[in-house]
Design brief:
- The chain is an alpha/beta fold.
- Helices cover 28% and strands 10% of the residues.
- α1 links the parallel β1 (4-9) and β2.
- The longest helix has 14 residues, at 115-128.
Amino acid sequence: MTKLFLTFACPPYDRILPLVCGLIQPKGINLNYLPLNVSEMFWRQLRHEEFDVSECSLSSYTMLRSQGDDRFIAIPVFTSRLFRHASIYVNTRRGIVSPQDLKGKVVGLPEYQITAAVWIRGMLQDEYGFFPGT
């Protein structure tokens, strides 16, 4: 039986190392793993559809779907999991000691749609009543 050839782009997360190292072989699949960093991988996949399977920014995927772009189908596999509360860094010289102290402050991020930033905005809204622009 001929194996299905699939290209898979994803950073080498600890959760997929057995797959990356060949300790786990997907049945019926000849897997070509490409260890790419997220920014390059997202850009290449979302603009050029270079891979059969890849990690994708949840926020970018959601934005595409909301615009009627259905080129990609998401499956519920989470290769990267982080506790996003630990992803907020503050300048302690600005008197910020609680999330409410962020109101009226300048908050910087590389891109508004980065999934981590979306999670953090949601967490700040749900848990602390902090909304962007307030």
